[in-house]
UniProtKB/TrEMBL annotation:
Record organism: Capillibacterium thermochitinicola
Keywords: Membrane, Transmembrane, Transmembrane helix
Protein name: Cardiolipin synthase N-terminal domain-containing protein
Residues spanning the membrane: 36-54
């Protein structure tokens, strides 16, 4: 399960890079198309950030706090 989440995160990051590159290189897009790309980029960035927070950062931070709590008890 962990490998699947890591793969999903990497794919989302690659997709973000592709979207941003496309947005930058295709500057002749209409305003509506540019807005759609920006909205998509922000949504995927937000989803990736949420996955990172709940899957990696939050458990690591909790484990770190648990270690500090145990160290204070000693």
């Amino acid at each position: 399960m962990g490998y699947l989440l890591v793969l999903l995160k990497l794919l989302l990051i690659v997709l973000q890079i592709v979207m941003l590159t496309h947005l930058a290189t295709e500057a002749k897009l209409s305003a509506e198309d540019k807005r759609s790309w920006v909205i998509g980029f922000v949504l995927f960035g937000g989803i990736t950030s949420l996955i990172y927070y709940f899957d990696i950062y939050r458990p690591a931070k909790k484990a770190q706090n648990d270690l500090w709590g145990e160290a204070k008890d000693i």
